[in-house]
Design a protein that fits this description.
The complex is a heterodimer of chains A (133) and B (239). Chain A has helices at residues 21-30, 37-47, 56-68, 95-117, and strands at residues 35-36, 72-75, 90-93. With 133 residues, chain A is mainly α. Chain A has a single domain (13-117), classed as Winged helix-like DNA-binding domain superfamily/Winged helix DNA-binding domain (Arc Repressor Mutant, subunit A). Chain B is mainly alpha-helical. In chain B, 72% of the residues lie in helices and 4% in strands. Chain B contains nine helices and two strands. Chain B is flat. The N and C termini of chain B lie far apart (96 Å). In chain B, 19% of the residues are buried. Classes of the chains: A mainly alpha (133), B mainly alpha (239).
């Protein structure tokens, strides 16, 4: 049996599921490092192949709620100030945020497996013919 | 061409900054500059990738986003702050009693009320109840805690104590509220009651208004008297 140690007062990741698409996309964008608002938005657009384009209101409204839920935190570190505008705020995942993202990804993976079992996701076939002498 | 696009992005961002006025004040203060900066970046991006049509498309998406999210944020702000509840809680006996416990131990406070020994919590509570006033500040998300006292330092000390007690009590469950002090209470420079400059100004305006009215009335009466006399003189001369 696997047990996870959590700080008192920290919610269990499963209790926060399912996440809204905006929250999950932001968690995904921050999974490989800290980013500022515009970089998060670009990452979401790229990941969804342009299908989801977050507006400033949705992005920062969601960021505010995620900060409050302690899924993400503001990063104090800044890249070279000459390369970047210092007014930008950078965000990164907290430990809880990463666990919640993993749990949500696992939930999606189970759904995909279920959809595949019901043949809702198409399968491709590749066939090769070899002549045997 | 690049310069024109840059200028268009800047102009669009300025319009968007004005549009942000429809968000709740607190959200705007905290995230307004970041949202405007993000929109500016989006404008540049849209113009570079798709030209003017890209900018039109971005505006359509952002107008819908702003309308939708401003409603969401207003609802969240209303749910978050129930000022009536906080005000009544802050002035309730339980909370003021907690402040009174702190103030009752203040030897200077006891001395002000000509007491050799310290005040009891009950006495301190009764004194506080008369001098603490809590209200929402001008339809914003700020709460104003005002304390009246003949001693300016004492007024500031009590006001700060009320908020400190509230903050420490609400920082843990089940209340768990985020209370941020925007301005700590400082001793006032001059008394608010009586407000001498205000009283002098009101007196001056009232005096001038009364003077003009009285002058106008006297002139009216005199004109009326002359009017009454003139026809009778005319009538006498014609006969």
């Amino acid at each position: 049996m696997q047990t996870t140690m959590t700080r008192p007062g920290t919610p269990h990741p499963e209790s926060l599921l399912p996440l809204t698409p905006a929250v999950f996309h932001i968690l995904l964008a921050l999974a490989d490092g800290e980013r500022h608002g515009y970089a998060i938005m670009r990452s979401v657009t790229e990941t969804t192949e342009g299908k989801i384009k977050m507006g400033p209101g949705t992005l920062y409204g969601t960021v505010k709620r995620m900060l409050k839920a302690r899924l993400i935190e503001e990063s104090e570190e800044r890249p070279d100030p000459e390369l970047d505008d210092e007014r930008r705020r950078y965000y990164r995942l907290t430990g809880l945020g990463r666990r919640v993202a993993e749990a949500e990804a696992e939930r999606y993976a189970k759904l995909v497996r279920a959809a595949r079992a019901r043949q809702l996701i198409g399968r491709f076939a590749a066939t090769i013919y070899v002549e045997v002498a | 061409m690049r310069g024109r696009r840059h200028e268009a992005a800047e102009r669009a961002a300025r319009v968007y900054e004005r549009l942000l006025a429809i968000y709740p004040a607190k959200h705007r203060r905290e995230y307004g500059p970041l949202m405007a900066q993000l929109f500016r970046d989006q404008c540049r991006d849209a113009l570079e990738r798709e030209g003017w049509m890209g900018l039109v498309g971005l505006w359509c998406r952002v107008l819908w986003d702003t309308a939708k999210m401003s409603v969401v944020e207003h609802i969240a702000a209303i749910q978050r702050i129930d000022f009536m509840k906080i005000t009544s809680r802050l002035t309730s006996s339980n909370w003021l009693a907690a402040v009174a416990v702190g103030m009752a131990g203040d030897r200077r406070w006891a001395a002000r009320y000509s007491r050799a020994e310290l005040l009891t919590s009950e006495e301190a509570y009764l004194l506080l109840k008369r001098v603490v006033a809590v209200r929402q500040f001008r339809n914003t998300s700020l709460l104003e805690v005002r304390v009246f006292s003949e001693d300016r330092d004492e007024a500031a000390a009590i006001a700060n104590k009320v908020v400190d007690v509230y903050r420490s009590a609400t920082s843990s469950p089940p209340l768990r509220a985020r209370v941020e002090i925007t301005d700590r209470a400082e001793p006032g420079l001059r008394p608010v009651r009586p407000n001498v400059p205000l009283n002098v100004t009101v007196g001056l305006i009232a005096g001038l208004t009364a003077g003009f009215l009285a002058g106008g009335l006297v002139m009216l009466i005199r004109q009326k008297q002359r009017g009454d006399v003139a026809p009778s003189v005319g009538h006498a001369s014609s006969s």
